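$ run holo --ligand "iron/sulfur cluster" --emit tokens
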Amino acid sequence: MKIPYFPGCSLKTSAKNFEISAISSAKVLGIDFVEIPRWNCCGVVSSLSSDDLMHHLAPVRNFVRVLEMNKTKMVENEKRMLTLCSMCYNTLKRSNQRVKNNPEELESINNFMYREEEYDGSVEVIHYLQLLDEIGFSQMTEKVKNSLENLNVAAYYGCMLIRPKEVGIDDAEEPEIFEKFLSALTAKPVAWNAKKRCCGSYLTVNNKDVVVDLAYGILNDARKNGADLIVTACPLCAFNLDNRQKNVLEKHPDFKTIPVLYFTQLMAIAFGLDEKSFGFELNYIKPNDVLKEKVFK
Amino acid sequence: MPKNKKIVLSSAKVRSNEDLDKLKEISEENIFSCYQCGNCSAGCPAAEFMDEPPHKIIRLLQLGLIKEAMYANSSWICAACIYCTVECPRGVDIAKVMEALRQIALRKGVNHVNIDKLSEKILEKLPQIALISNFRKFTL
Ligand code: SF4
Ligand code: SF4
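-- output --
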């Protein structure tokens, strides 16, 4: 299956491990990510102002690229746009909904981008977890070579995968898609309280202390509930929960670190892929020890 | 807001206030739907770091006290996590109200984060996803 793939900036930089593990594990399932030509940054966060159309241009421009891919037969009648980063997913999806629900606004944007092909609202933004669910998580189970049955994993939804309700990939209050994913990979999902709690997001730039406190609470909750590691779909959460453990340790010397992986890294491990496709060099807290103990025995 | 500050209420304050009108326009939210149950603040992960938790910000706005709502650090601590919006039984999109408060301040020409003042050391360490999202919310 060939599908238009929107990487976003992080997957080419700080989250290369997210991309490499995703693409290589998708191949095992027969999914071919076709990178959208000339994609541009989505803007990371959705503009919540009603009078601000400008910030929806970037997402719409990307939707036009998907239409072009269909025209040039890079993909066959496939107007779904696949995202991995949950912030890209949210921002693109929210913009798409807004212009679909407001034809006048879409017209303004189309007029402004008169050199581009007109966007007709026909693209659908989806997240990789949704695609896997649609194909059937059980397909993954068949491909598992390294059992994760001894691995207790805390699925961290954070915010952007499930909020607001209109764009969430699952129920905003009781999501379970991530846990279903983990079970299909033969891992043990842990029940924990902080799975939907915000990590502090962009406050990490100018208000690090808030993020450090929030991360401390989230990480401890995962540990307290028996998690060996945490999985996420967000490069910003990954930075705040993984790299910021350095700052958590400075503040709380008795803190016990915990690895934070992208969910696709767990797929690559379970599918028995080459170590190169794990990309652990970009994970701050290394998962090697816990994997050696619980998976690669 | 200082604890013992006297709040003066008047209908004129609620009816004629340029910033308040702007807030309604930008957010498209009816702040008067709020019945002060406090659900938003109970779930807000950042409330403990705010001068005034989300439900109090809404209350201040209901009373026409937008200056006080803007004076509080709350909208600059809000991480736009949308938890409050999902939890509100009255359908108030509080995250949008917080955004409107930020926008009103930013549109007056004062950026909350001064990019020039961030040290190179900080900039180098941070991934672009953090920088772009921060600048999108805290600068114009
Ligand atoms: S949850 Fe909604 S109704 Fe309750 S205090 Fe907050 S804004 Fe008001
Ligand atoms: S969107 Fe802002 S105010 Fe609402 S719960 Fe999140 S941090 Fe708190």
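-- notes --
The mean pLDDT of chain A is 97.
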